[in-house]
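User: Some background: our group keeps a shared notebook of sequences we're curious about, and every so often someone picks one and asks for a predicted structure to add to the entry. Today it's my turn. The entry only has the sequence so far, pasted here. Could you supply the structure so I can complete it?
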Amino acid sequence: MRGTSRKNYRFIVLLLACSVFAATPVLAASKSIDNNGMDNKKESQVVTYADLDPTIKKAAEEAIEQYGNGKNFKLERATKGEFFTGKAAIERWLVENKERSAAISIDAGSGKLLSISLTFAISELTGDYEKYLKTAQLAAKQLKADTPFAGARIDISNVQSNKRQTLNFFTKDEQFIELDLKTNKPTSYRFAIKKSNVDAKVMRAAEQAVKGLGSKLPFTHIERYTNWGPLGKGEIWDFKRKKEVKSIDRDKYSYLAIDKGKKYAIESQVVIDSKTGELISVFALPKTDNQKQVQLTQDKAVEKILPVVKKLFGIDLSTYQVKVDKASSDYTFSSGKQSIFASFDEYGSLDRMARHVTK
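Assistant: Of course. Here's the predicted structure to add to the notebook entry:
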């Protein structure tokens, strides 16, 4: 079954990652380094906070005094290990409380603050931090996100290769908006949006996209978020139809996801540039009931693709160069910096398309 092969499972991820703005960020996990930059190959030294070197304790306490907004964080333990700053590695102490709502990284040699992360309840954001809360709430309202914030986390990094000063407001279900502390402007966000709050023109474009691939089933999840793609930072609408499944069955489903411990099959997805309203990519799980396998000729496939691309993307492919991967029935139409990808299932139906633009 073509749509469920391992090759095509990877293709869906690549198709979304290579589009104008990727629909789903790709994260690479390292086996040797933990989330705080520690090298796990070497044995770490762990001490109670009471036994920590006074110089390091002073640096941690001064950092909390500067950024903690008067909140009392009871520091309890410290871990010494290697910390990677770009290609270089230095020894640092990671000082934390039991709940890990406070994490302060101190250079073990100089005693200088490398980074600090502090988590607050919304009610604790008083004084200088109150203006950031107002900005976050206003931005969420403008984006038509209804979920209230449950807390906020300040992140300060003085590491040369990763300098940042941000305040991240989050909800109970992991929606968020991040603000730059210097400018008090949003830098990134991710929100679930109710269908009733989606712009009617954008909603029509999303529904038209999946209908163009033969699906009339409604979306179950709608998100709006920022992401990085080949053209830099973008803001996108992400429409999905998700079906909860008991197991990850790649022989049955070609696009799967895990969210909050639950497993889902993605039956359709549409990604739209929220700035321009232009379609970026569309995927729809093909219908397989009572259908026969079809091997399309290139001419027949191109004949099917051209009118759909014209309708959904507004692009005339008649002058584009076409490349065909016959093994996977994938077609790439290119002209200058723009490409259109189109793919067929084994029954001769279009199941995914994407627009790619490079610098």
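Suggested note for the entry: The first helix runs from residue 6 to 17. The helical segments are 6-17, 54-67, 130-142, 200-212, 298-313.
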